[in-house]
UniProtKB/TrEMBL annotation:
Residues 24-74 form the MrpA C-terminal/MbhE domain. Keywords: Membrane, Transmembrane, Transmembrane helix. This is Multicomponent Na+:H+ antiporter subunit B. It comes from the Bacteria. The keyword Membrane applies. The chain crosses the membrane at residues 5-22, 63-81. It holds the Pfam family MbhE. InterPro entries: MrpA_C/MbhE (IPR046806). It comes from Acetoanaerobium noterae.
Length: 86
C-alpha cells in the first residue's frame, strides 16, 4: 500500500513539474528555423542542394556526435557480449 501511494505521489509530482517547465518555455509560432534555412542556405553554404547543405554544414557537429555515441555504444555491447555472465 505504501509503495502504491509513493508511486502515485511521484507520478503526480512529475506531471506537475512537467507542466510548470512547459509553461516557462518560450512558444514559437511557425517554422522559423525552416524559413531561415530556406532563405540563407544558398548564401551561407554555397551548395546547390539545400538538403545537402543543411546536412553537411548546419548539422555537421550533431552528426559527428551521433556517430561517436553510436560507436561507443556498439563497442560497449561487443565488449559486454564477450563475457558469459552478462
Amino acid at each position: 500500500m505504501i509503495k502504491r501511494v509513493s508511486f502515485i505521489a511521484m507520478v503526480i509530482i512529475i506531471i506537475l513539474v512537467f507542466f510548470k517547465i512547459s509553461d516557462q518555455m518560450p512558444h514559437h509560432n511557425g517554422n522559423s528555423s525552416g524559413e531561415y534555412y530556406i532563405a540563407n542556405a544558398l548564401d551561407e553554404v554555397g551548395a546547390k542542394n539545400i538538403v545537402t547543405g543543411i546536412y553537411l554544414d548546419y548539422r555537421y557537429f550533431d552528426t559527428i556526435f551521433e556517430a561517436s555515441i553510436l560507436l561507443v555504444t556498439v563497442s560497449g555491447i561487443l565488449f559486454l557480449s564477450k563475457f558469459e555472465q552478462f
